Amino acid sequence: MTPFEEELRQALKRREPAADFTARVMARAAAEDAKRNSGFWFSWRLGLATAAVAVLTLSGGVAYKQHERSLKGMAAKRQLLIAMRITGTKLQLVQERVKESEQEAQ
Amino acid sequence: MTALLAATRSIAVARDGPSALPAFATAVETHKAMVYSIAWQFLRDRIAADELAQDVFLQLHKSWSRIESPAHLTFWLRKVATHRAIDAARKRKAQAESSLEETDEPTVLERVHDSFLSSYLQRMVASLPEKQRSVIVLRYQEEMELEEIAKVLDMKVSTVKTQISRALDLLRGKVSRRLGKGTGQ
Amino acid sequence: MKRSLLKLAIVAIAVAPVWAAEDFKLPVSLEKLAERATETVDVTLDQSTLALASGFLSKNDPDEAEVKKLIGKLKGVYVRSFEFDKEGQYSKSDVDAVRTQLKGPNWSRIVGVKSIKGENSEIYILKNGDQIGGLVVLDAEPKELTIVHIDGNISPDDLGRLSGHMGIPELGKAKKNKSDKTPQAKPDKDEEQSEKES
């Protein structure tokens, strides 16, 4: 693998979903199962599954809001660093062009 | 035992043997990062990627009886996740959504130097045409062999090679122009 | 009554150019260039978003610590950068839409360089007493157009410090110029014409 491909591999490292991801998938799967097998015996199961999803959603909700704020902040930081990098690069470029222009004038 | 726990346990499929499939919950826990990451590379939105990843696992849950082995499970997840992500990305492009959340996302930086190159590369991969993006994600994120990528994407191996080569040339060119960096070929 | 109205009008006229001069906005007309661009960078960070971002900048990372110092006094950072796969994808009027806003008395063009390759770079600053109240960098190349607007107090030393970090080689120390003393290539006829017209 070339150094560039290695950089690409590092840049594309897997990222983790939210901590409660598996719990949410399982709750939805249980709810779907219960729905699929619906009938008198399973309707109370569906009710419990729905309640479980609601509890997970509520408790996950608060944590998720904080998580979202953190994501927004990090995204803003990334945008800012890119902007600063472009600004610095362009200023550098202008300086180089001024130097070239001065040299040509001499 | 609550009814929910019982329902959850009933979902688990225990099969015996060394190449036995894990329980469904274990499969979710083991492969959630893989599926989520594939979704994210196309959608660049944490919430949308989370939803798509959930949908992939729910589809797996319905198709669980058709999964033959752990290797088949991995293949199945990559294939479904990639195709769903491509479809979802197409729909989003058509709807022309745009928000701060869709742009850069923090990564876990393991290399101290040049976090900017890493961030820039992620953005550039996201801007690649679909086919090129797919092969790059499967090759460099999932570290798949060319033949495996060809099967997941229903392409010829030669096409996969060509797409990777084009994508790398494009990425190298952009990095070199934008960041003034040598690309250490 | 007439005299007080007249006084009010004089004050309004005196004040209005200052407001108009400071009020630089990236032209909305630039957004259409994204459709033709192979790559677009679109950064819009207002004061509240900058404050949010600042909270996530690490004091332990030298680059991030430098940026954190820089943005403390800023009101906004805006970047539009478009890369095209061929020439002629943006017009002079697209660039003039930016320049027109920078002709007010408080804006000064401190650098203007044009190369024979068709690369045209300009730096404008907004005077705010003895400080710089804003900065616009305009870089127009055959296949790329970049506009950077930094709104808020920024010192030349801050700008100089921006280079030397983030992988950018260090600039020489920026000078406070009262007038444009930087040598520049001959402006072309179109530029002279548009300056006469405005």
What's the topology here?
The complex is a heterotrimer of chains A (106), B (185) and C (198).
Chain A: H1 3-11, H2 21-36, H3 40-105
Helix pairs in contact in A: 2-3
Chain B: H1 3-11, H2 24-43, H3 46-63, H4 70-95, H5 115-126, H6 130-141, H7 146-153, H8 157-179
Chain C: H1 2-22, H2 33-36, E1 39-46, H3 47-54, H4 62-71, E2 74-83, H5 92-99, E3 107-114, E4 120-128, E5 131-141, E6 144-154, H6 156-162, H7 189-197
Antiparallel strand pairs in C: 1-2, 2-6, 3-4, 4-5, 5-6
Gist of the model:
By secondary structure, chain A is an all-alpha fold. Chain A has three helices and no strands.
Task: Provide structural commentary.
The complex is a heterotrimer of chains A (106), B (185) and C (198). With 106 residues, chain A is mainly α. Helices cover 86% and strands 0% of the residues of chain A. Chain A has helices at residues 3-11, 21-36, 40-105. In chain A, helix 2 (21-36) runs antiparallel to helix 3. The longest helix of chain A is centred in the last third of the chain and has 66 residues, at 40-105. Chain A is elongated and about 85 Å long. The model of chain A has no long low-confidence stretch (mean pLDDT 77). With 185 residues, chain B is mainly α. Chain B folds into two domains: 1-97, RNA polymerase sigma factor, region 2, helix turn helix motif (Rna Polymerase Sigma Factor, Chain: A, Orthogonal Bundle); 103-185, Winged helix-like DNA-binding domain superfamily/Winged helix DNA-binding domain (Arc Repressor Mutant, subunit A). Chain B is 69% helix and 0% strand. The longest helix of chain B is centred in the middle third of the chain and has 26 residues, at 70-95. Chain B is globular. By secondary structure, chain C is α+β, with helices and mostly antiparallel strands. Chain C has seven helices and six strands; from the N terminus they run ααβααβαββββαα. The longest helix of chain C is centred in the first third of the chain and has 21 residues, at 2-22. Chain C is globular. The two termini of chain C are 36 Å apart. Chains in contact: A-B, A-C, B-C. Chains A and C meet through helix 3 of A and strand 1, helix 3, helix 4, strand 2 and strand 6 of C.
